[in-house]
User: Fold these one by one.
Assistant:
Number 1:
Amino acid sequence: MRPFSALDRIAEWSWLDKPASALRDTVFALLRNRRFRDVLHGVWLGHPLHPMMVQTPVGAFLFAGVIDAFPDRGAGERRAAESLIGLGLLTSIPATLAGAADFAQAHEEQQRTGLVHAVANGAALTSYLLSLRWRSGGAERAGVLAGWTGLALTAAGGLLGGHLSYHQSTGVNHADAVPHVAPEEWTDLGALTELRDRVPSRRMVGEVPVVVLRDGAELYVLADRCSHASGPLSRGTLSWQSESSGNSPCLRCPWHGSVFRLSDGGVEHGPATAPQPTFHTRVVDGHVQARVRRIPGVPAGG
Ligand code: FES
């Protein structure tokens, strides 16, 4: 069996659902503040935070492993290895929090893999804690072995993390293709009178499903599939409660509650971090027409 098909099998392990949902509930209980969750998702960065946060602990653990590989290392090198492990443990705290926030908003199959990823990383951190303890107690050899065990587990956790992103599309922008596959010319979306005020409705622009919303004289057209995980925004709810957008209307995704500004598709609340693609709109002979904007994140309409 190829290693990657073996990784794919994890997503089929339904027996993981119970512990995964227990972990998800724990994460929600601990991370109740939405603004804090937004910070952990990376909404402010416009990119998932977790992949960036893991760089420091992984790098520190790797360097500690390299130093430990020298048999003739002296007291200075030993101290350096211990400091690197300490740095890795410390910086793994925000990385773990960011990963936990993303995990809690993933779908079932992603959570199964995510749970194994978390167990591997948890075992790695435990190994490093033991490594530090044994080193400080004078058991240098046991400490080095625990460090290498931690490094192997970190690599396994990293492999699963990559699999979560590249095979299971966790954290990727699910709406990225829209500006490339939607037709460049204006597309008729039906009569303006068919649109009920402030009621989202689904239409097609070529092969691309879009959500159309009329708010008085304003018309908004956004890609229908949410950038977080393809949830149908046309089944979402309108919101004017956003702080940073003032009274500008927003649309809330029905799946995990991401909130997008209708004016430019910008993210008000995660877990989405990428803006929702928007479309130019116009009305010709009483018919609404839309044309995709090539660059997401700019105001819609006009
Ligand atoms: S699909 Fe997750 S917030 Fe929209």
Number 2:
Amino acid sequence: MSKYILPVSVFGTVFGAAVLLKNHVTGGPCPSKATIKGKTVVITGANTGIGKETARELAKRGGRIIMGCRDMEKCETAAKEIRGKTLNPHVYACQLDLASVKSIREFAERIKQEEERVDVLINNAGVMRCPAGKTEDGFDMQFGVNHLGHFLLTNLLLDKLKESAPSRVINLASLAHIVGKIDFEDLNWEKKKFDTKQAYCQSKLANVLFTRELAKRLQGTGITVNAVHPGVVATELGRHTGLHQSQFSSSVLSSGGGSIPILYLSKSGNTTVMDIGF
Ligand SMILES: NC(=O)c1ccc[n+]([C@@H]2O[C@H](COP(=O)([O-])OP(=O)(O)OC[C@H]3O[C@@H](n4cnc5c(N)ncnc54)[C@H](OP(=O)(O)O)[C@@H]3O)[C@@H](O)[C@H]2O)c1
């Protein structure tokens, strides 16, 4: 019996420490009780993970939610589920493939034609550590989807956001940006050996740099721009890596009670619970 005491206590300590660390890093659920009736929110990659949870929460708070997803079947299913759970009928599924400039332009055009206003744009969709691959337009998949696609979408919707001010843009970044480097000579991994981890970190650093520059350029327009590090959340993001799929990581990651804490990186680099309401 005594031979099990040491391994069991080591496991208990490691597990407990991992849960405490996770709770410390993620900060806790958003405390805001604000409602957003009359506000329109556009959110990319909303059929699963953080995007779906955010869409659900904002639908619960009364917003008109436009979910932009590449797989319409998954998107319709998620939108239907959210409408059913929140009893908010204004949750819409819309085709958007961020790996295609054509699709992004069509999506933005549809929003501009059909929506009276866009109060919040949440650039959430992302792909992490996928095998080497290119978008329809020949960009590295992670740089293309995570940064360039959202860069284009945001710029196409800027006039609408300005007309709807006070409005906001929220970019889902990651603490992974800290080890990212932007290789301006070879953004698409054509001259050097492909490194999928670095490609993700480069794309997430691009999210942060884009946020800072856009925030600066939009000063005085009534549009605020923030980058969010969402914490470490059990989603499908690790589908190419196995991360979030082991028994250990899923136990630790799901131990927070199911809510998604939302943090943002301020200019000083601090993380704080973000008020997603108005
Ligand atoms: N989870 C974490 O711990 C964590 C940590 C730091 C940062 N983040 C960031 O949080 C964001 C959301 O990630 P998540 O964890 O919720 O991941 P997820 O569960 O894998 O969700 C990613 C979403 O992005 C969509 N997507 C991928 N490629 C797309 C494309 N070409 N066009 C349109 N949509 C596309 C996916 O659609 P499909 O379902 O069709 O693939 C899915 O809806 C990402 O930007 C990620 O970098 C997450």
Number 3:
Amino acid sequence: MKLYLNGTSPFARLARATALELDLSTIEMEWVDPWSDQAELLIVNPLSRVPALADDSGDVLTETLLIVRHLIENAKRDSELRTKDMRTITELGVAYGMMELAFAFTIHKKHCGESGTTLQNRRKSSLRRGLEVMEAVVAEDMRWSLSRLCLWIALDYIRFREVLDEATLDNYPSLDKFFTAHQDRAALSSTAFS
Ligand SMILES: N[C@@H](CCC(=O)N[C@@H](CS)C(=O)NCC(=O)O)C(=O)O
């Protein structure tokens, strides 16, 4: 199996970190630049996006949540990531949405500069509401799951791209504690944004 990825994509990091959490060491990493329409990536994903997962028989999956679901369902090893618990799935929707918002904010800023302030402010407000909800959720318990993996990477991406002021994240003590508690997990420390 081959995972197409790059070093700054939070989505690709979620797919890669999932594979690491599941000990799927046989997946080959194929580093590409999705922004330059590389022929190699276009063959597997005509939309030129990462992550994309190609299996040995040539079948391809795109879209992060479909990829991670496939990896988890087909892994031989049992894992905290394997759950059908509705609470985890609900959390995952919010955490993945936060990742999307932070990514959209970053790409907008890169390509459109300071224009579109109304839209960018809306994204930031939604992100803050997501942070508030997740602050309450992790304050209840710090257990690990697929939604928490997604949340951790979303938080790291917000910091990496400076989507919100550092001071804003400091307003969420439980999220801060959660972030610190898991930062040494191999699947996270070995996949830092680059
Ligand atoms: N909804 C997609 C988002 C994937 C995505 O937007 N990937 C970005 C990198 S973070 C990309 O490859 N962008 C290239 C482009 O849009 O041309 C998923 O969940 O996989």
Number 4:
Amino acid sequence: MTPLPPGHRFPMPKFGHLHDHLAAVGLLGPGNLHRPEPAAVETLGRAHDPAYADAFLSGRLDRDALRTLGLPWSAGLAARTVTALGGTVLAARLALRHGLAANLAGGTHHAHRGHGAGFCIFNDLAVAALTLLEEDAVDQVLIVDLDVHQGDGTARILRHEPRAFTLSVHCASNYPARKARSDLDVPLPDGLGDAGYLRVLGHGDEASGFRGLGWLLEQVEPDLVLYDAGVDVHADDKLGRLAMTDAGLRERDRAVLEACRGQGVPVACVIGGGYGDDRVALAQRHGILHEEVARRWRAERARDASRTAAARSLP
Ligand SMILES: [Zn+2]
């Protein structure tokens, strides 16, 4: 575990709790739990200034840079950071192979090319997108960022990369104060609850020119979706200002998976933001994503099996 000072508002223990929660409900096993390789410096360099990456990894960031980041440096934090980032790259590769995969961390969308911010050191979404594009594993990526905060770092890093389309659906009045320009931004009003949120996701929002996720998938035609399923849209979240419930979160995740998988698009998921003092409740909230990914996975396998059986029974 990465040591943070007692009372630090970044809920580092949630990651361990999430693992334990998913193991307890039977969703983790030797067949589906993969251990990522720490991301190499060259991999980070696809999205980040090498001087910044090197300064962070070697503990040489200055005090101002650490203050913007919001986390105190330690060797443990550096190791954890590159492993979590490796997890998103691995999830993206697994999604291309199997259709669905989910990291137990990730979604560090406030990290910029040359500096970290808002608890985000390196931008796993941008790194994963640029890595797979550079390897020609995909021609087009769509980043669906539904964390309550705008994905400003991702938007800025990928601004000049037309093969990576950035969608950010976020609370307009929330951090960051100075928003970046995503390929498509959908700012939401404070206090929006399940029904309003799900309506926007499914049917769009006239003011921002978004016509719903299904529509966007048809426009962008991605080979891969990177989905940031931040749970800070929840009513009980300490840093969110929307008013979603657990049931609403579940419907949101289900809707994203259905929209993407219904069009045959692989989806790699990351957990994104989630803040609160009850770390166990928080971990269970993040676990909704993995439960829905597992449900979708089982439904797809059952459908494949029945198709195979039907094909075999043909004369
Ligand atoms: Zn967030």
